[in-house]
Every structure is written in structure tokens, then in C-alpha cells.
Amino acid sequence: MSASGVEQSAHHGASPVQPAGGPRLKPADSGATREPLGTRILRALLTQRVVLLAVLIVVVVAVLMIMDANDYLTAPYDPDYMASSLINAVPLAILGLAELVVILSGRGGIDLSVGAIVSLAGMVFGFAYGEWNWPFWLALVVTVVVGGVLGAVNGFLVSYIGFPALITTLATYYAYKSLAVVINNQEPISTEPIQNLFSITRSVELPVIGHDIPNFPLGIFTFLLPTVVVIWLLLARTTYGRRLFAIGTNDVAAQWSGIAVRDTRFKAYTISGLLSGLVAVVTVAQFASARPDAGVTGNGMALPAITIAVLGGVAITGGIGRVSGVVLATLLIVWLNAGILLAFEGNEGSQFQLLALGAVLVFAALLNGLTNRRYGGTR
Amino acid sequence: MTDGVTAGGQPPAEPQAGPSSAPAAPTTASTAPAASTAAPADPAVPAGTELPVAGAGDRPAPDSGLARLVLTGISKRYGAVRAIRNADMTVKAGQVHALVGENGAGKSTLIKIVSGAETADTGTIEFEGAPVTISSTVDAMALGIATVYQEPQLFAELTVSENIFMGREIRTAGRVDWAAQNAKVVELLELLRLPARYATAVVGTLSIAQQQQVSIAKALAGNAKILILDEPSAILTDAEIDVLFDVVRRLTASGVSVVYISHRLDELFRIAQEVTVMRDGQTIGTYPIADLTVRQIAELMVGGILSEHHSERSVPSGEPALVLSDLGLAGRFHSVDVSVRPGEIVGLYGLVGSGVSEIAATIYGIDRATEGEIRLDGKRISPRSPRDAQRLGIALLPANRKLQGMFGFQSIAFNISAGHLPLLSRFGTWMDRSREKSVARDMIARLAVRTPHERQAISAMSGGNAQKVVLARQLVERPKVLVLAEPTQGVDVGAKEEIHRIIAELAQGGTAVLVVTSDLPEALRISDRIQVVRGGTTTVEFGPDATQVDVLAAAAGDVAASDGGAS
Amino acid sequence: MTTTTPPRPVPAGEPARAVRTRNRVLPSPVTGQELVLLAVIAAMWVALYFTTPAFLKPGSLQPLLVSMAPIALIGIGMTVVIITGGIDVSVGGAVMVCSVLTAKTLVSSGVSLLPAVLLSVAVGGVLGLVNGVLIAYGRVHAIIITFGTANLFQFLGLQIFGSSTVNGIPSTFDVFGRGVAGRSFGIPHAFLITIVLAAVAWWYLRHTAGGRHFFAIGGDAQAARLAGVRVQRRILLAYVLTGLLVGLGSCFVIAQGTSTLDQSVGTGYELQVIAAVVIGGTSIMGGRGSVLGTVLGALLVQTVSSGVTQLGWNSNLRDLFVGVFIIIAVGADLLRQRSRRAAA
């Protein structure tokens, strides 16, 4: 409870800031009382993650543009560059949304296996599209379904058997990662059709308004935007979304309200798998190759995805989180990373990206703790 | 324990009895305790001023009769609520001092003050003749005041010995001296008549009753001079209660004072020497228990105030909507017989641990009955889950609002619609948000929920308002049968009034209402009939003209009226 | 599937773990899960011996013991952290920082063994302190903080690397390595040190008040606080301990390689360590666990790894087996808890 009480208003972004006379809120049954503008802005920044992220994005972009204007960067940090860097947002945001759905389901929900699913499903896509020459749409569907099945294994163990999510997905991380490598004897698949797929990651000019704005990567429109819209609709507009928030907030109350708790949680992990399957296709296209270690090299894909989710305001205790938070957190990290690449030579840039990611995450987590104590608790 | 009880000479009311317009005769002072210095109906007179100790069968302990703990003029308020006003209590050395009162009478607050979990606003505490300040649980433990709560607070993965000495281990040369520690534990266990091998048993492998004994041992390890037992018998079987009483007797014989809180009045006569009665945050008086009967204690608790009655309602006489016949759940309750007609409000009244809450959970499909049957409109049903129950037309307001009812940081609209997603959606998939909003607003208006708008988070609301929201969830689709578990627990007086009005309206509209409650005035006020649950089974039924004393005596086990308790 | 001793259904009035020996004052020092692990490892060794006779030879066993040493060593700290109900996913990054810093120091200044080890341990301790302070006093869930510091440590490590490998590391750490210098009486020093430290930790956790307090915190932190346990200080200590062991473990890691260290050092270590701890029977929910189990868990993982290699299978199958073992271990734990709940 304590970890999340505050973010109630973050979740119901539309609701006005609650009336209050100070840090210790009285049960707010009465009408609003006026308070200074500065206090209200501070509260909005601290309790509404979306506001904070929006401000941070503006600050980061402004600072980088100023640095650019003063020749501190190796290449121009302009709208064209920002737009083209968005290609990195596609896998990051989609996996961030996968973690959002899983973490929302509560009871320590988390999915460490997304990167391994990306690898394994990507190999399946490599076979289907690159070796067996299936039509693209069929290969895509099969890949996504395979991802869903792998996620469903997690969901079954966590939801129906009652395994802790962290350990279950650690185990399946190992298993899927291993299968991805073994399935084609450590060899990547980069046949002709796969290599040609690279074209779907190119930047395109938008119709009508395209002349006046930069070109955007195609993947934004083919993969990211549809996913964001679907997940947003799912969470905000469907009965499933309601059930998911309900079990994440209080699964006992959900059961007593007649909600099928286990079924709902099972589906959350399955959705995470489906999204990972989608990312598998994107990743294969980006690398122009189905690599058996695509999702698990280095830190893998799970860690950044969880970071994005937490930064986006998703409470690790479940029941709190918004699609817009995850999207904004992705934009912040992607544009910050893009700037860092220009600010440093060679490998330095990617190293400072780690620093930025870690620092922002610790900062956000400590901020959560602070707001919980300052504004949290209703009594 | 299982046999039927006829309470206090009052014959069980006819189920068919019509509404009574005449209030029952007030319970007069003719039954008031004879030896009492304070008239029971007069709370202003401070009691406990040196009543003769009658010593109910037990020989006095060495220093018996000396006042070990004296509380004078203790008051405590939480915000606007005065939990305790001017309470006095004197606990003598080597005695068992019973503390009784209805729910909300202030017993637990008083205990919290003595055990250091809360501090009093006013009043003085004297311990062994000297005034003391108890500002933390550590202070209380240092004085030798130990409290055993209903829920054992133990570490399930550690051994009994470790639990008893957690935070105050006996150490030699840096390591825990297990041998010395266990030797002490074995002594304690012997005192409690427990086998020595318990010392190294892992607590999680013990039964709840055994864990409670461990809690007592833990309390005693700190060389307790006063042991406070909060409802220890609620979770115990008869045999386990016998053991507990044996332990308590031996403790008092060795000079320990015991403060014993219980709802089961009959058992007090077996163990206590004195009893302090609380009502409405005040101590009514302290009496030698031998001078009283169960019925008299019940009168003191209720205050001799005549029970209030619900407005005149015409109770329909049709076929019952809900019938429980011979219903049982192994180890929880058995042979439960209840029927509720459409439009009728039936109270199911029982003390903590009597099995009432389990009965409610079984009707709602949380647990599955192991014997007997549930009939709905004449058809036999056996709901497997709350969803099943809901589909059949059964709704339940859960007893534990925070744990089972509320989606804390979600909005009012969310909380109301959570139980009706298929109804408030198109094709069962898409939320119909305008419908959801209008339903939420309707409910807010109908239940007079005080809130600026339906988007407010329920966690920011007062108990009464939050309860109305959770109740609203049960009413969106008018249920055939509505089970209300503790509908007004932790709810302020105004909201309580309104919730009672809503319940009456619902019944008026033809819903069969079963109110499961341990709040007796509530049960009497809103029910057309009251079924008393005791020892895991339905015992007596009262009509609308029952008095609080009658019902309480029946539920608490009137020794005069039944032979169930003492023998 | 009863892999543990305690949970036989208990007749009313009988504690489950009856004490047979008069003097025994604690539950059995070895849990059922540990015995099962031991049996599985033994069975695997025997099976491997018959399929690849080279297996039980010293030339094959010694590298196995050297390889499992850092995992088991860091696993000791991780066990304590998980017992308190926390987790530390930053150990991979911390291993990188310690090993590269120490390796660079060895290359540039040629310090002798003891100062190098102390340096590594001290650096590890500081990193653990950072985690501990943030978790104990920042009141944020451990997994989030350590995900963050994992990135920070990695940044730090790569910065110290200076975007290249570290070459020409002197043989100072060969006493921890696979070579002849790395063993006495045929037993690798790294393994020996790990076993000694594990024994000390085992004794500490079992026989001191401070050790038992870790378990109490994981069982119910609030109740522990009420009982007078200094919860925050204990939690801090758990992460610092892990950091110190990471420091020492990093020396073993350096010694395992040739004279070079590349930027992948430490990558994935956190998951390997957590896997060993979980397979060893420590509950991820906190409150229960054992260092002995962790050492056996690490040994099992390493046995699988070397077995897969020696059988000529695809070495990546190792991870599949690790995943399966985790599922089995956690499943056994769940069964144990359920049967106990049913009995109580």
C-alpha cells in the first residue's frame, strides 16, 4: 500500500489535484481549498509522473540544443536527428509496455524473460520468413503467437501454480535463451529475404505535411503506434483493463468482486509474450538478421524495459501505471541517449548512456519514496 | 456446546411473528448485581472502589488483593471520536481480571494504552503503588506488562525458542547460548504444560492454538507481572480452552495478574475473580464475578437501555428466497439452519469466533460447504466462486472493507463497476464509460456518498463513505439475496444511520437480506428476526421484540439457561 | 516430491520437528533440499564418470571447482540479502568495477597479492554500501535500486576500462587460478577459501543473534522491529557483505582468465548467482535460506555446465538445464509450504 498510495492521481490523470491544506491530507470529502500556484506545481511534478517526464524531456532537449548551438556536439542535434533516433524507441517502448502490463498485474509481477523471448521468437521468424519463405504476414503472426505461447508458460507458472514471478521468468529466461541458441546451432539466419527486411526500418516522409517536418522511421508507424494504441485501448477502455487494474490493486477484493483473478494474471504474461514476439520481428529487421542472442546480449532487453516502466511511473507493487508514462519515459531515454552519443567520442557515448539510465532510475525511485512520505497515505 | 440453548427464559420468537409496535419492556434494576456499589445504569459513578473480592473458588495468591495496576481517569480521543472517557480499572496481584464490553466499547483502546501501543490523553497509571509513564511497548515490557493479541505475531520460519527470545537473545562469547535459552524455554513450556520438544519446533509447523500458547510463553519470558490476554479463546476448541485456563490458574497462583478479555461471558465464571464492564468508552464498574450472572453482565454491557426497534415493516410471508439447511463446513461450523424471505431482513448474530463470518463466506462461494445444502428459490445451489454466486443473484458486502472490499487508490466509479464489468460494457469487452459514469453518479446520489465527483480515489475517503461505495457495488444489479457482513464496522454514526436506511429500502424492494454482524444493537435494530450463532451452529431465534440482554445472554452462553458452558 | 524433512502432516499437539538428540537445540543443520541437491550432484558425477571417464579425474574436477568458486562466494552474500527479503541484481556490474580496477592496478603498479585483494574487497564494500544505504534508508524496493546501480556500476567499470581490454595482467592472482600455483594438496585455493568463508557464514547465520535477525527481518520486518531488531542496520550490512564478497570474488574472476580481461567481465553474473541461491533452497520471499544450499546450487550449475561440455553437447544447453533446475527447486519449495499449511 505504502509504495503506491500517492500515485492515485498519477493514475487518474484527468482528476483534479486533490484539495489539501498541507502535506498531511485529511480525507477529502469536502470541496477544494485554494493554495499557492507554486505548491500546486510542485505537487503535480512530484505526484504526477507524466508531468515530471514532460518537463524533463523539455529540459533535456533544450540543454542538448543549446550545447549543439555552442558546438559542444559532434553532429547537429536537430529535429531530423531526433526523429531518426526514434527507431530505437520502437523495441524499447513495446517491451516497456509489456513490462507495464505484467507489473500492473501485481503480486510482484515482473518479466525477466522478454529478451530471451525476443531471441527465440526471432529465430522462429528467421526460419519462417528467411528459410521457408512464408509470406511476411504469416511469419509475423506465427512469431507473435510463438511469443504469446512462451509468455503463457510464464503466466501458467506464476498465476495458476503460484510461482514467484521473478524466479519463474529468470528460469524461463535461461531456458528460452538456451533454446534460441541451440535451435539453429548458434548460427544467425540472414538470408536474402531477411536482409531485405531492413527496408522496413527506413525513414519515410509523411504524406501531406511531410515537407515541413522531418522524416520518421517507418517502424514508428507500422509497429510502435499501433501497439501503443492497442495497449492504451486495452488498459483504458476494455473490461480486461479494468480487471487487470483491479487484481493489481487488491486481488482479494477482486476475487470477492467476482473477477477471475488467475485468468486475468495469466493473460498479462501472455500479452507480454505477444509483445515480445512483435519486438522479435522488429529486431530481426533492424539487424537484417535473425540473431540467436538478439535479446540477451550485454544487459539484454529486459533490464532497460523494466527501467523504462519504472521510470514511467509504474508501481512495482502493481495497480498503478499508464501507457503515456511509459511512452514519455521512452522518449526521454531515447532522446537523452541520442544526445549523449553526440556529446562523446566513440564508445564513451554508449557508456554514458548507462550512467544516464542508472542515474535517472535511481533518481525516479528515490523520488517515489519521497513523494510517498510527503504526500502519501490518506491519514 | 452444540445443544440448543433457550436464553434467559425468553422463548424463541415465532418466525412468523408480525411487526411489534410496542417496545419491549425495559430491563429493570431488579436484576442488577446485588453487591454492586454502583448502579449499572449510572455510568457516572466510578466503580472499582474496593469491592470485596469473592475469590471464585481459587485460593488467593500470596500477595493477592494488593493493587498491582491502577488506572485512573484515562481518556483517549482519535480526532473527533472519544474512544475512552474517564476510565478506571484496578488489577490486583495474582488475580484474573476480566474486561468485557460490546464491540467499540473501548476495551481494545484501553489495552493498547496499558501495553504502550497508544498513549492516553489524560489520566494516571500506577504500577505497584508508584505512578508510571508508559509511552512505548518497550516501557510496558520493562515494567512486566505483556500482551498476547488474538493474531499470533510470530516468525513462522524460526523455532519456538528463537521466537520467544527474538531481540533479547542470551549470548555467550558472541554466539547465542542455545542451551541456556532452550533451558529457559523448557521451563516456560513446562509451566504451560507443553512438551519440552516444542522448544526446537519451527513455529510454522504448529497449529494456531499451539502458536497462541507460544505467544503466551513469549509474553511470560519477559518475567511478566501482568499478562493481558485479548480474546484468547476465540480461536480455541473447548479442550484447548481447558488447557489455557489451567495455565492461567497456575500463573495467578504464582502471583501473575491476568487481564482477560472475552466475549464469551460464560467462561469468565470459570476463571475470573473480578470483572470490569465497559460501555460507550466508559468503565461502568468493577464487580466480584461471583456476585453476577451472565445475564447481569449482559445487562451491564448493554446498559439496561431498551433496545431500539426498526420502523414498522410488513414482513412478507412468501416462500423463502434463501434457505440454509443443516449447512456445515468441516472444522468451522455445522448444522446451520437459516431461511430468509424476499423482503425480509434476518440478522445472523454471533460473537467473534462463533463461525458467523465463515457462514457468510460459504454462501458466497469463497468456501465450499462440506455438509448440508443451500437453496435459492427452492433450487439447490453450490457456488464455487464469488462469480458463481453473483450469477445466481447473491451479493455480499465483505466484513473486512480494506482487505476484501476496497480497491484503494482507484476511483469511486472504478470501485463500483468492478463487480459489474459485463453489465457496464458493450459485448463484454468495451467499457461503456458513459453508462459507468451514470451508474456511479446514481449510486452516489442514492447512497448519499459525500464526494465532489465519482473520480475521487476511495482511499481518500472516510470509513463511512468508503463503506457506502463498497455497498453500492453490491446494489448495481439488484441482487435476489444480499448478505451483509458487518455492514457498519468502523463507520461513523451518521453513515451508520444511512446504511441502515438503505438496507431497509432494499428489503422493501423485495431483496432477501441476511445481516451477519457482531454488533448487537445493529442486529436488533434492523432485523425482522435474529438467529444466534454460537459454537459454530445456529442456536436460538429471536423475534423483533427481543431485548439486547436476551440475545447477548444467548450468544455468550448463559450458564443459568444452558448447561453448555461450565461443565 | 517431498524434498524436505519437516512437512509431514502433524498430529494435533505434536510439533513437526521432533528433536531426537538430547543436546540438539536447533532444527537439523542440513535441510532435505540440500540432501537432495547433494544426491543429484553425486548422481550426475557418477553418470558423467561412466559416459566420459575423463570426468572424475583431477584435471577435470579442479577447473570445475575453480569456476564455481566466485559464483558460490558471491552467492553467500546474495543468500543473506535474499533472506532479508531483498535482492541484488547489481553484482554483475560490481564484479566488473572491482575486477577491472584491480587488474589495472596490477598492470600499472604491480602491487603484491595482499594489497590487491584488499583493494578489490574495499571497492566492492563501497559499492555494496551504496546499494545498502539507498535500500535501507531510501525505502525503495531493492530490485529497483539495484537495477539502477547495475547501470551505474557498469558505466563505472567501462570508464575504468577505457574502452579497451586490459592486457598483460601479472600472475599475482595465480594462487586463485587453475594452474598448479592455484592449489595445495590438489585442492584449488579459490574453492578452499570459498568453503571456509561459507562455513563461517553458515555458523554466523545459525548461531549468532545478528545472524538470526536476518531471518526475522525476512519473515516479518515490522515484527522484527518491534522485537528490538535494528532492521535498517541489518539490511545495510547484508548489502555491504555482498559487496565485500564481490570484491574477493572479482580476484578469483581475474585469476580464471589468461592475462587479459575484456569488457564482458561480470555480465550475467547476477542471474547466475541468483540461480545458484534459488536452486539451493533459499526462498525468494525471504525469511528462509541457507549458505550451504547456495554452495551446492553453484556446484550443481557448474557440474551441468562442465558435463554438457564434456559430453560434447551444445554448451548453450547448460542454460536450459539451469532454467529447469530453478523451476524444480521453486516447485519443491512451494509443495513444502503448501503441505505445511495444510498440516497446521
UniProtKB/TrEMBL annotation, chain A:
GO molecular function per UniProt: transmembrane transporter activity
Pfam families assigned to the protein according to its UniProt record, in alphabetical order: BPD_transp_2
InterPro entries: ABC_transp_permease (IPR001851)
Keyword Transport annotated: yes
GO cellular component: plasma membrane
Chief location category: membrane
UniProt entry tagged with the keyword Acetylation: no
UniProt name for this protein: Autoinducer 2 import system permease protein LsrD
UniProtKB/TrEMBL annotation, chain B:
Stretches assigned to the ABC transporter domain: 69-305, 317-560
Alphabetized Pfam families for the sequence: ABC_tran (PF00005)
Cross-referenced CDD domains: ABC_Carb_Monos_I, ABC_Carb_Monos_II
Cellular compartment(s): Cell membrane
GO cellular component entries: plasma membrane
Annotated region described as Disordered, given as residue ranges: 1-64
Record membrane topology: Peripheral membrane protein
PANTHER family associated with the record: CARBOHYDRATE TRANSPORT ATP-BINDING PROTEIN MG119-RELATED (PTHR43790), D-ALLOSE IMPORT ATP-BINDING PROTEIN ALSA-RELATED (PTHR43790:SF3)
Name listed for the protein in its UniProt record: Sugar ABC transporter ATP-binding protein
Organism, scientific name: Nakamurella endophytica
Automatic annotation (TrEMBL), chain C:
InterPro entries from the UniProt entry: ABC_transp_permease
A GO term from the CC aspect: plasma membrane
Residues that span the membrane, as ranges: 35-52, 64-87, 107-130, 142-166, 186-205, 235-255, 267-284, 291-311, 317-335
Location within or outside the cell: Cell membrane
Principal place of residence: membrane
Record key words, sorted: Cell membrane, Membrane, Transmembrane, Transmembrane helix
Leader sequence segment: none
Gene Ontology molecular function terms on file: transmembrane transporter activity
Bilayer topology annotation: Multi-pass membrane protein
Recorded superkingdom: Bacteria
Protein name listed in UniProt: Ribose ABC transporter permease
